Amino acid sequence: MIVDKIKKRNLPEKNKKIKIDIPVGKWAKCEKCKEIIYKETLRENLSVCPNCGHYFRMHINKRLESIIDKDTYKKFNINIETNNPLELEDYPKKLKSLREKTGIEEAVSAGTGKINGEEVVICVMDSGFLMGSMGIVVGEKITYAVEQAIEKRLPLIIFSASGGARMQEGIISLMQMAKTTSALTKLDKAGLLYISVLTDPTYGGVTASFASLGDIVLAEPGAMIGFAGKRVIEQTIGEQLPEGFQTAEFLLEHGFIDKIVERKDLKNTLSKLISFHKGGEK
Amino acid sequence: MAQKKEDNGEAIAKSMFEMAKLEVPIIAIVIGEGSSGGALALGVGNKVLMLENAIYSILSPEGYSSILWKDSSRYKEAAEKMKLTAKDLYDLKIIDKIIKEPTGDEGLKKIANNLKKEIKSSISEMNMKDKRQIVEERYNKFRNM
């Protein structure tokens, strides 16, 4: 492609590594097929490469736009801030600069909205914000969302995208796993539907808590999902892992997830599942 | 912590989920190196006790420094920062009680006695409560973290 050549020629050697998560300017590069794609085309195609079908990671706003009916999303009004429990010097600064860069407050957005007219409580994570890691703010928002689903008697949908518990908040992050999981036992007791949607990447403490606990667990094609990373496991057990280990397809085959759903079909699949489950409610 | 080929994320989630629902009192005791999801999978207790010299953390100091600073050789610095000692965790209200570990002659025996005493008093305290209270108190403990 001619654009490819122009871009290559103009770029100094050290800038060759183009960040694909947050494409700059009007063009984005597919990390899989290396095709240069017009950003508008990519946006219209739900952040899926029109050339090779590779799934780009999605920004919270784009995800909400693709799932929730227009103008129906109401973000929960919870303003909490981490108290930086490990007193790390650069952590608050990092959060501040990430907020400016990404235009989002934290690694999750939680609220209510409608999916093809079906009212739900929805949480969407964003791996562009400190790898979507779960600290006290993410844990609190997810827990609050679960409690709101119980109070309003609504189905709960969580889109996971996370490297796991947030290292910067130490043990407090670890405890968010117990907190979110405990909240889900109440949702379960209330007999409400929880659909967990795993997107690339879902790892660590997020996999090991709410992401694995959906009544129905869906995943996007090709999403990488696991607890510890592949390299770490191989080093620990001293064995080669099978081909395709930790991909959504591998996990489907082994019964960890219920269905792989293409991005363009997610909205309709979710609304169908929700309406199926409304039948039993009196 | 054994890491199986099948990956153990779901097992940790399910273990915590079941613990959170149990209608009997749970006492979790950290006796050595407790870290990451493997420790927490058994740690959703009404009471969390910890031996004086045990550690309890999000990850091993080696793993922590490797993730945060891309340098696992900075594990000493990580261990200082992570607040993983019994004293730190008591101050952070993550654990309820520190069990003293006297050294010297009969040290182990004394530690075991301290543990026994603490387990006994925790049980008799919680035996006064009904099922609903036991589940609810455990819920609130983690809800506030």
What does this structure look like?
The complex is a heterodimer of chains A (282) and B (145). Chain A is α/β, with parallel strands linked by helices and 282 residues long. Chain A has two domains: 56 residues, no CATH class; 222 residues, 2-enoyl-CoA Hydratase, Chain A, domain 1, CATH 3.90.226. Helices cover 38% and strands 16% of the residues of chain A. In chain A, the strands form two sheets. A seven-stranded mixed beta sheet of chain A has the order 3-4-5-6-7-8-9, sandwiched between helices. Chain A has a two-stranded antiparallel sheet with strand order 1-2. In chain A, helix 5 packs parallel to helix 6. Chain B has one domain: Alpha-Beta Complex (2-enoyl-CoA Hydratase, Chain A, domain 1). In chain B, the strands form two sheets. A three-stranded parallel beta sheet of chain B has the order 1-3-5. Chain B has a two-stranded parallel ribbon with strand order 2-4. In chain B, helix 3 crosses helix 4. The longest helix of chain B is centred in the C-terminal third of the chain and has 20 residues. Chain B is globular and about 50 Å long. The relative contact order of chain B is 0.16. At the A-B interface, helix 6, helix 7 and helix 8 of A face helix 1, helix 2, helix 3 and helix 7 of B.
